[in-house]
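thought: user wants a sequence for this fold. calling inverse folding tool.
action: design(structure=
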């Protein structure tokens, strides 16, 4: 296995730590300690991903009304919004009606778009 450069390791640890919402203050401290260990080469990226999963809070479910309000605030139709999220228009319609709820990457993208705007995905 090839060892990552110190610059790339610092970038990964810094990026994760700066934007993360931790499950608690204790998890935040644990994660920051793991990031320091990554920077000095005591742990590898795979181990850091384990700490990310354990310590960083997953995005919370977004209600259907908020998804629709976000789309309308962006002045987008369902098909255009779907293209930006790499989803089908029918999926966006189901999210907005409450028939389905976004999960995984779609939930994360919605969270990012809500915080930073659609331009972040362009």
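)
observation: tool returned 122 residues.
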């Amino acid at each position: 296995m090839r060892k990552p450069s110190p610059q790339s390791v610092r970038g990964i640890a810094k990026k994760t730590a700066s934007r993360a919402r931790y499950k608690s203050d204790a998890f935040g401290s644990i994660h920051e300690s793991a990031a320091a260990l990554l920077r000095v080469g005591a742990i590898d990226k795979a181990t850091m991903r384990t700490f990310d999963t354990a310590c960083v809070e997953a995005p919370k479910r977004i209600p259907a009304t908020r998804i629709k309000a976000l789309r309308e605030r962006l002045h987008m139709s369902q098909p255009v919004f779907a293209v930006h999220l790499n989803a089908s228009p029918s999926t966006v319609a189901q999210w907005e009606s409450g028939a389905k709820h976004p999960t995984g990457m779609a939930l994360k993208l919605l969270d990012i778009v809500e915080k930073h705007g659609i331009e972040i995905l362009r």
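thought: summarizing for user.
answer: Here is the designed sequence. The CA atoms of residues 66 and 94 lie 13 Å apart.
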